[in-house]
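Need tokens for this chain, all 219 residues.
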Amino acid sequence: MFEIFIVLTLLVGLFFVAQKYFVKQEDTRSYLYKVKGPILSSAQTAFYNALKEAVGEHGVILTKVSMTNVVTPQKTSNKKQWFIANSVIAKSYFDFVVCDPRTMQPRVVIEYDNGQKLDKGKIERQKLIMQVCKSANIPLIGASVKLSYQVGKLRRLLAAHIDLIEPDKEVRFCKRCGSPMIIRTATQGEFEGRRFFTCSRQPMCQYTENYNVVFDDPE
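Here are the structure tokens for all 219 residues:
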């Protein structure tokens, strides 16, 4: 029995010596790398260009963003649960994240749909993204490849989350009676704190309009 113990002790000692030696060798070894290619596919690049056109200077677009750089599990007394929750998102990413250009605070996540058939892995990833965004209260937009050619529609989707107002278009007229419109701020209800346009003939004309409604560019 004593001999077996001695053998096991020697084996463990050899293991640690070998591990230390190889780790040291790994630290000093120079590896060679090469560029894999474009970060985005040609279709994704076309969508990115459309997104950049739609956002303009009102947002910063990040792509292939690790989830752990955007969200983190809520604090819990159970450290094991926290590490499990973190490991779930550690290997996944967001296709596109649009951030506030002043603070770099994430404003909206965009999941790109290339139009190909869904496989099991993609379905599970989409479920994860939906659950994470809902839990973290981050707006999520699903965007198809078709939007690569519909900048106006893409801007309307983003307008609910990003201020895309253009200074030269802030002067508006009521679409119901033609009177000038004025900007007010909601003081109560679901949209408290948000700006909106209302007809200057209130209460004679009750027409209102979302402050951030995006005008279509004339074709």
